[in-house]
Structures are given as structure tokens and as C-alpha cells.
């Protein structure tokens, strides 16, 4: 079978044949872009990539760099230090607006230029080149290939960077930027000049969608940092059309003036499109339309979440034991259903089997809920046996991504001391 995914992407590109808007001209080199380019790539969290159109054409990342550099700044300095210098409120202003919070002097968020310049300055490195190199290493790790800087775009943008220079000097006057403003703008401009394709951007977005982890299992961002970045993208990623975007498309996103636009559906997919003509907000015109269509066709809106599986657990009787067969990934709502099933067991010493053979993942809250349920069944007098071949209860991930052993999290109850009754349960 030929997967319908690719056909769908072609259909999608065909649906935005008409284009409007202007290629960015305030950076001379960007004005040279072919305005008719159109490409799309969709990356799944397990590493599959679907692409159509101009998917191998390189363009500069521009403002799509901002969320990734913000993540690096937090990793380098800690969230509190970053929040002290950069707020997380949508500004309702254009991306290059010279606006700082009246009270605190902080740029309103890291997605507008003022905040992005401040975030760049917080990345460790002695000078522009050193910071840009670390940033390039990070983007390459996310993209899964070695990226490079488009030196022609960099020179062109730096030679016309008066406005960003003004922002950086202003940030220094209010104490929100250490170091030499010209050096910071130089490094920030290098960061914006990294050359990418939609395939690269889709993969980078898929890492954000996966809580900071690449398909190969490389945990690039701490899950808490990743969440911070996605939240800011959701509220501020589309500048002064952020509200419009969140209601009509409804996923964290980021645009760049070279025509790139990425969207992240947490837990599901990373998407990137490229079309250089921009709307008055500086967002790709056809890019926005493509996302609106995908939202409609694929049901991507964050506020219309998929309901959790109803059939997460079922109860069978086997050899005089009540077997709770549980299936699927477990989060709060699924764990609540499992507990509901446990709660129906009458008090007594009848054996209960908790069969997690079909569960490969549980988040920390689901794991703790299950352990507490098991502890209570035990307290009620049941002989509880656990089938946990994937180690879901013993090594589930916590929010910080580190492994916590069962004993630590729930006060002395040791699931490992129960015999593995996999064979008995299936006999
Ligand atoms: N490098 C561009 C700038 O600083 C990025 C702006 C953008 O992509 N919106 O103006």
C-alpha cells in the first residue's frame, strides 16, 4: 500500500496555490528569496518523516530559533535567572517592537526580538562566536544532522541590524543585558542565520512534541524546560496574532521572517512549512493557511484533546483470581479508571492480579496512583500479584526525567518483592 499521508500533503499544498503577501525586505538578502517556494514536512515522534513540495530547499531559521535558544538559556542559567530578565506575557506587539515592561524593564517574552536578544545573551559562551557555536551544536542535535550558518544572510542582516542594536542597548540601560550589546546582536544574528529545511524544522519540532527527546532517545531538553518553551510558544509564538492563532489553529507555533513556520502538537507530531511571502504580522501567509487547513482536516487543536481510552482496563476471573488487565499508556485519567476497577473488589483475601503486560508507559502520577491502589488492595487483605514485564511501576519517569524507584515514592512498599506471575496469569 502507498501511504495516503504523502497524497494528503500534496493535496494540502495544492489547496494553497494562491498566495498573497510580501517577501521580507528589511533584510536585503531575504528579498532575493523565490517567493513561490512551498514545502511541508511532518515528523512523528518515533522518527517517521513525511514531506512534500520544496522540502529540501534551505532557508534561514530566523525567529524559529528563538524557542530553542530560550531552552538553552534556561538549561545554562536556570529558570529563575531567566525569568528575572525575560517575562512570559504575550505582548500584543509586533516582533521587533521596542517594548519593555514599565515596572520591571523586562522584555515581555522571549519570542519577540527584545526577549530573544536577552535570551541569546544568557547562553554560556565568551563571545558571539562561542555562543553561536553552542547554539548551532544544539540545533544540529535536534535536527539530527550538522547544520551551518548562511554567512551571506548573516552579513546582510548584521549590516542592517540597527533596530536590534537599539533594543540591545536599551536592554543594557535597564540592567537586563550584561556584556557588549553589539557582540550580543552579532551572536543573535548568527543564530537567526542558521540554514535549515522544513525536514530539519519538523524534526526539531517533533523533539519539542516528545517532551525534549529525539526519536533516537537522546533527551536534549529537561521535560520541565520543554514545557516552559511550549507554553511560551503557545501564548507568544505568533506575535500580535497569537490570540488569533491559538483560537483558530490551537497549537504552539513559531514563525520566522524567511517564511518558515513550525507547529508542535504535544505528544503527537512536529510540523514545519515554508513559503516566503508574509502577512502584515511577519508570518508566512500560506504557512498560516496550511496550518488552518491541517487543524480542520486532522483535528490538531490543543483545546480539543483526544479523550483517554475507555477500555484501559478489564476484569477477568482466572483460576479463582480477579485479573485486572490494563492496556495502553497511563496518565491521570487512565489511572483513575484503573483505580475505579480496583475499588470494585470486595474486601477479602481473594487473589488479585494486576496485569501490566500491555502497558509500556506510565507517567509519574499514574504510577503513584497505581502503586497506591495496589497498596490498598493489599491492605484490604488481597494477595496482590503484579505482572509488570516492562518495569512500568518500578522505573516510570518522573516529571524531571530521572528514574525513581518504587520504594522511594510510596513509603516502603516494594513491588519487586511480589512474584512475577506472568505465566500463571496466562495459563
Ligand atoms: N532575525 C530577524 C530579526 O531579528 C528575526 C525576525 C523574525 O523572524 N521574525 O529581525
TrEMBL record:
EC numbers listed for it are 3.5.1.2
Molecular function terms in GO for this entry? glutaminase activity
Q: Which PANTHER family match?
A: GLUTAMINASE (PTHR12544:SF29)
Q: Which family does it belong to?
A: Belongs to the glutaminase family.
* Keyword tags: Acetylation, Hydrolase
Known InterPro entries for this protein? Glutaminase
**Pfam families named in the record:** Glutaminase (PF04960)
Query: Which residues participate in substrate binding?
Result: 63, 113, 157, 164, 188, 239, 257
Q: Which reaction does it catalyse?
A: L-glutamine + H2O = L-glutamate + NH4(+)
Species source reads Pseudonocardia oceani
Q: What class of enzyme is it?
A: hydrolase
Q: What is known about its subunit structure? A: Homotetramer.
Does this UniProt record's set of keywords contain Acetylation? yes
Instruction: Supply the name of the protein.
Output: Glutaminase
Acetylation listed as a keyword? yes
Amino acid at each position: 500500500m502507498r501511504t495516503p499521508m504523502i497524497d494528503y500533503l500534496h493535496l494540502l499544498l495544492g489547496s494553497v496555490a494562491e498566495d498573497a503577501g510580501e517577501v521580507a525586505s528589511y533584510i536585503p538578502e531575504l528579498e532575493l528569496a523565490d517567493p513561490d517556494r512551498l514545502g511541508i514536512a511532518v515528523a512523528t515522534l518515533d522518527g517517521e518523516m513525511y514531506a512534500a513540495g520544496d522540502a529540501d530547499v534551505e532557508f534561514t531559521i530566523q525567529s524559529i530559533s528563538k524557542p530553542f535558544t530560550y531552552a538553552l538559556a534556561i538549561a545554562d542559567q536556570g529558570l529563575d535567572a531567566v525569568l528575572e530578565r525575560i517575562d512570559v506575557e504575550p505582548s500584543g506587539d509586533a516582533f521587533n517592537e521596542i517594548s519593555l515592561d514599565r515596572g520591571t524593564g523586562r522584555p515581555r517574552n522571549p519570542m519577540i526580538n527584545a526577549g530573544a536578544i536577552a535570551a541569546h545573551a544568557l547562553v554560556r559562551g565568551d563571545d558571539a562566536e562561542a555562543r553561536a557555536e553552542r547554539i548551532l551544536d544544539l540545533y544540529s542535535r535536534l535536527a539530527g544532522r550538522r547544520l551551518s550558518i548562511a554567512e551571506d544572510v548573516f552579513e546582510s542582516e548584521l549590516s542592517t541590524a540597527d533596530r536590534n542594536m537599539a533594543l540591545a542597548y536599551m536592554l543594557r540601560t535597564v540592567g537586563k543585558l550584561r556584556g557588549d550589546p553589539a557582540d550580543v546582536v552579532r551572536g543573535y544574528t548568527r543564530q537567526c542565520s542558521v540554514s535549515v529545511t522544513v525536514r530539519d524544522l519538523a524534526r526539531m519540532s517533533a523533539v519539542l512534541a516528545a517532551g525534549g527527546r529525539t526519536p533516537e532517545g537522546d533527551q536534549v531538553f529537561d521535560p520541565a524546560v520543554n514545557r516552559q518553551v511550549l507554553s511560551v510558544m503557545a501564548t507568544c509564538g505568533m506575535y500580535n496574532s497569537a490570540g488569533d492563532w491559538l483560537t483558530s489553529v490551537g497549537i504552539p507555533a513559531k514563525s520566522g521572517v524567511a517564511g518558515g513556520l513550525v507547529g508542535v502538537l504535544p505528544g503527537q507530531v512536529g510540523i514545519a512549512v515554508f513559503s516566503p511571502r508574509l502577512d502584515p504580522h511577519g508570518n508566512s501567509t500560506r504557512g498560516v493557511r496550511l496550518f488552518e487547513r491541517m487543524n480542520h482536516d486532522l483535528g490538531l487543536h490543543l483545546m480539543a484533546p483526544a479523550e483517554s481510552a475507555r477500555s484501559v482496563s478489564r476484569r477477568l476471573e482466572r483460576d479463582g483470581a480477579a485479573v485486572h488487565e490494563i492496556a495502553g499508556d497511563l496518565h491521570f485519567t487512565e489511572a483513575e479508571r484503573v483505580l475505579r476497577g480496583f475499588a470494585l473488589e470486595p474486601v477479602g483475601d481473594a487473589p488479585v492480579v494486576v496485569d501490566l503486560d500491555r502497558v509500556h508507559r506510565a507517567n509519574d502520577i499514574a504510577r503513584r496512583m497505581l502503586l497506591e491502589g495496589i497498596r490498598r488492595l493489599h491492605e484490604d487483605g488481597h494477595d496482590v500479584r503484579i505482572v509488570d514485564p516492562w518495569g512500568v511501576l518500578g522505573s516510570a519517569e518522573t516529571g524531571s526525567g530521572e528514574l525513581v524507584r518504587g520504594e522511594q515514592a510510596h513509603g516502603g512498599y516494594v513491588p519487586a518483592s511480589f512474584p512475577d506471575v506472568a505465566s500463571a496469569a496466562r495459563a
